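Example with several molecule types.
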Amino acid sequence: MNPNQYRQVRLEKLEKLKALGLDVWPRKAERSIGIGGILEAFGGLDGPALEAEPHTVSVMGRIIAYRDSGKTAFLNLSEGGEKLQIYTRKDALSETEWEVVRLLDMGDFISVTGTLMRTKTGELTVKAARVQFLSKALLPLPEKWHGLQDKELRYRQRYLDLVSNPEVLHTFILRSKILAGIRHYMEQQNYLEVETPMMQPIPGGATARPFITHHNALDMALYLRVAPELYLKRLIVGGFHKVYEINRNFRNEGLSVRHNPEFTMMESYAAGEDLRDVMVLTENLFSEMAKLCGGLERPFGENTLSYATPFRRLTLKDAIAQYGAIDRARLERSEDIVQLAKDAHLEDIAKKSPGVLLGELFEHHAEKQLLQPTFITDYPIELSPLTKTLPDNDLFVDRFELFIGGMELANAYSELNDPVDQLGRFMAQMQEREGGNDEAMMLDLDFVNALEHGFPPTGGLGVGIDRMVMLMTNAASIRDVILFPLMRPQTARDETANDADEPE
RNA sequence: GGUUCCUUAGCUCAGUUGGUUAGAGCAGCUGACUCUUAAUCAGCGGGUCCAGGGUUCGAGUCCCUGAGGAACCA
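Resulting structure tokens for the full complex:
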């Protein structure tokens, strides 16, 4: 039975439905209430209560189960991840409608009008008095018990994944609720949502390789943004007090269970604030979202994570010392740091400064072990070209990254607002770039110019929304929380071989 | 980039040491059944075993190359 044979059989049924005089592709469904609404409004009523005071409803949905027993048939309709049983019997329908019921397939959409009842097993059911045919599915649904299991098909044909795996639909419904929850929380904190360019002439705000594209009319290169940071800061210069943006960033990097080339980030900036204020904002955001999703204790893989505030604070060096079982004093001496880097088999050690090596030692020894929410603070200045230095140490900056479940979830600074210092940091990045580091930042002179017009002390934050949703929904892969994750095209490579000049 | 694993019917999966005509369930088709719950019962149809090459008397199974996917490492 190949897909064409299924189509053929169902096309024939469609012709039979037309022959009954039906509009088989009607424009609108008869519907007085949704399935969710029925469950909410009548889910508490028992059989006698429904009989005493009959409720007539019109519902629509996709047929996800069909149990036919002669002159009756039970159907399950699905809408928005909720399902409802329909009871049809020959003697309760017109001859035409009974014919329609017999020509239905799983996957079809119908609307049913009838009264609510309880079956003998107690299930809430609509007893059909009228049936409206809405749409024919020409192709079969995946297996009804196991759903669609093949991961490749689930990502490539997400619509089938959503239809046949209800928990997937619920994950994405929860994602929407988290997004709404974040906006609600930020609004409560008096932040304004803004939108800044996603196509930028100079990509800035993060050390990452950008995607490049071309604008024909202006004949100029444009980059998909790696971060909105430099534009949001311009808004603080312009007089916005507190702003945030939730949108996509694009980074031309590999794919993994934690990385998708386009991912959703929330960035926020608050004038007059510093890193301590941003920490409070951040931990409250996470704990509020955990509450929204069921409670402060959330399962993640093998662990239970607690979002009770305050979150733990740990300096970068302390984290390396603690998780790497390394004498803390050695992290103060450059030659010891180099030796530790060798011990950890880091690459290109000779080319890297002690600060860069500290960052890599942290990733090597500590990152994956930071399961419970932890703020890591006091980053080396080389890793943080947009951040104010610590008051008592100009080699380290006032920055935190938040780690949960072994992943980086957030990144925040006391923003550098000294334009002269900022220009110097850009120059250092330019040197990095010339040295072959294509992740180093590009010089954005207009941004420096904006700072020269006066930029108040500001606390800034970036939160990885996909990873936050992973935590809240206990998803093992970022692909399980992105509706359409990037996949290599399935078409044969020789059909799309015009990218053959791309060096691999 | 490296290592390991996966790809068999529309879907979910079996397939023994390399040996006859590749199996099951769901889905589908025909029939029975007026309260079913993965409905049940009887019968029927459905395969580019990911692709290409090789070894062999014989390959879904072994080897090589490629494609796509998954996990781990860097």
